[in-house]
Amino acid sequence: MLICLSLTLPKEEACAVATKSNQNQVDLFFHYQSLLHKATTSQGLEELSPDHVALLLLIGSHWHDGEALSVRQLMQMREVASPATIHKRLHQLKDAELVSFEESATDTRKRMITPTKRALGYFSAASKAMTQAVKAAS
């Protein structure tokens, strides 16, 4: 439901302006999604489900912030999924050569999850898609 409020424009004009602005944003969003899909397929990652992508982005985000997740930390994130589901998806990402497990520098019992070159290639392609979408909107 769209509610249009304006102190200076009649209701019909305010709704038309709001709808056009919303439509431009929707068009931009789907243009970005199309470019992102092309980036995903160009990287050979079309087999990834949205859940796998979300997990990869979570892992990549922590790694990028300098705080790589340990396998144990990830398994304890109940808001992400159940431990069994996380374990399965994590190993699917490993099998797809998107993440690797490295020994912690401070505790050799800990396995830290890091994105691979293939994952970094995906992040780079996704970034280029975002840049293209923003340029198209300008």
* CATH top level assignment: Mainly Alpha
Give the helix tally.
Answer: 5
The CATH architecture is: Orthogonal Bundle
Mean pLDDT: 84
> Oligomerization state of this entry?
single chain
> How is the CATH topology named?
Arc Repressor Mutant, subunit A
What count of structural domains? Answer: 1
Question: Could you tell me the radius of gyration in angstroms?
Answer: 20 Å
Spans of at least 5 consecutive residues with low confidence: 1-6
SSE run: HHHHEEH
User: What portion of the residues fall into strands of 2 or more residues?
Assistant: 5-15%
Keywords:
138 residues; mainly alpha; Arc Repressor Mutant, subunit A; 2 strands
Describe this structure in words.
This protein is mainly α. It has a single domain, classed as Arc Repressor Mutant, subunit A (Orthogonal Bundle), CATH 1.10.10. The chain contains 5 helices and 2 strands. It has a two-stranded antiparallel sheet with strand order 1-2. β1 and β2 form a beta hairpin. α2 packs across α4. The two termini are 28 Å apart. The N terminus is likely disordered.
Provide a short characterization of the protein structure.
This protein is 62% helix and 7% strand. With 138 residues, it is mainly α.
Task: Tell me the layout of helices and strands.
Blueprint (H helix, E strand, L loop, with lengths): L10 H32 L7 H15 L6 H5 L7 H13 L3 E5 L7 E5 L1 H21 L1
Antiparallel strand pairs: 1-2
Helix pairs in contact: 1-5, 2-4
